[in-house]
From TrEMBL:
The chain crosses the membrane at residues 304-326. Residues 331-366 are annotated as: Disordered. The keyword Cell inner membrane does not apply. This is Class I histocompatibility antigen, F10 alpha chain-like. Residues 202-291 form the Ig-like domain. GO terms for biological process: immune response. It comes from Gopherus evgoodei. It is found in: Membrane. Keywords: Disulfide bond, Glycoprotein, Membrane, Signal, Transmembrane, Transmembrane helix. Its main location: membrane. Residues 1-19 form the signal peptide. InterPro entries: Ig-like_dom, Ig-like_dom_sf, Ig-like_fold, Ig/MHC_CS, Ig_C1-set, MHC_class-I_related, MHC_I-like_Ag-recog, MHC_I-like_Ag-recog_sf.
Length: 366
């Protein structure tokens, strides 16, 4: 089957990851057949949560989305995989027509999806997967333990019988998952160690909202963290772990970090005498972090009111003193010989005495 070789490319492009821990390699394919027979084919490959390559009917070319992925496999390898995916695209048309026949369908819009992948926990293989879906429903999947196909719906028994009787395709899938997929994942994990070892701690905040019905809703926000896995829970008095009311799930940000929100609703009776906190566990934190929820704002005590009044008075005094100093500074220093203006009644005598001249000698003399 054409789908079987999907992981050959994506395994090589997908796989930089940090040493140790758990890492997964996945190829996700979607093929859509329109009513007029037009067939659209799209593939993305991912290592853990990082997209590293894609192919589509529009580009008709395998294109890496990470520079290190392109450098890891080389231009010749990409050209080879482009040719393979051109064949996969043609093969998907045949498979879609087969699924339509099995469902007694002659027209309409139909979607075939394939999820191929594997994972490593340390060096131990995990989650070998080769799974088909049709029109949004599970169709058939491969069980690597029993080496058999599991039909999810009645029409899938036809390919199950065909693949298990012929055996060649089943053997290919088994070998591919256990050898090529895991081998590619191991080698590229080593190459891309620095990429997935980065740790970005979450920025954590907790808010409170008093609902009209008298209940209290605490919301915990964890923003901008990487890698994706995170655990958020609620704690009462530092001990009792409580179930969350609502969660946004783990959502991606545009900068490749992640965001999540968790909410807890409690009654006023549950709040009395207790403190609540959001508990966040993430690989970047080292140990769990508690952020306490704000308490209810009650009436201010006389002592608190007195302190607030005193602070306001001190602030007002400081502002007033500052204004006076600023005005004096703006006026500048007095010039030498400066005297204040005389009053109206003594204006003439002050002027005469300042000049040192007898008033009677001013003007023409007779």
């Amino acid at each position: 089957m054409a789908w079987g070789l999907l992981l050959a490319l994506c395994g090589a492009l997908l796989a930089p990851a940090a040493a140790g821990g758990r890492h997964s390699l996945a190829v996700l394919v979607t093929a859509v057949t329109q009513e007029d027979g037009t067939h659209h084919y799209f593939m993305i490959s991912k290592l853990d949560d990082v997209q590293i390559a894609y192919y589509s009917s529009d580009t008709r070319e395998v294109r890496p989305t990470q520079t290190w992925a392109e450098q890891a496999v080389g231009a010749e390898y990409l050209q080879e995989k482009t040719q393979e995916f051109l064949r996969h695209e043609k093969g998907s048309k045949v498979e879609t027509r087969w699924w339509m026949q099995l469902h007694n369908q002659t027209g309409g819009v139909h979607t075939e999806q394939v999820h191929v992948g594997c994972a490593l926990s340390g060096q131990a293989p995990r989650d070998l997967r080769y799974q088909y879906a049709y029109d949004g429903r599970d169709f058939i999947s491969f069980d690597a333990q029993t080496r058999t196909w599991v039909a999810a719906v009645q029409p899938a028994f036809a390919p199950k019988q065909s693949w298990e009787t012929g055996k060649s395709y089943t053997q290919y899938v088994q070998q591919f998952l256990q050898s090529e997929c895991l081998g590619t994942l191991r080698s590229l994990v080593q190459r891309g160690r620095a990429v997935l070892e980065q740790q970005v701690p979450p920025k954590i905040s907790v808010s409170r909202r008093d609902a009209p019905d008298g209940s209290v809703i605490h919301s915990c926000h964890a923003r901008g963290f990487y890698p994706r896995p995170i655990h958020v829970s609620w704690v009462r008095d530092g001990e009792d772990i409580l179930a969350e009311k609502d969660s946004s799930g783990i959502l991606p940000n545009a900068d490749s970090t992640y965001y999540t929100q968790s909410s807890l609703e409690i009654s006023l009776q549950q709040e009395d005498g207790h403190r609540y906190a959001c508990r966040v566990e993430h690989s970047s934190l080292g140990e769990p972090t508690l952020v306490w929820a704000p308490g209810k704002m009650g009436p201010l005590s006389p002592g608190v009111l007195a302190a607030i009044v005193l602070a306001v008075l001190v602030l007002a005094g400081a502002v007033g003193a500052g204004v006076i100093l600023w005005r004096r500074k703006s006026a500048g220093p007095r010039k030498p010989g400066y005297a204040p203006a005389a009053t109206k009644s003594g204006e003439d005598s002050a002027s005469s005495s300042s000049s040192g001249t007898d008033p009677r000698s001013v003007g023409p003399q007779c």
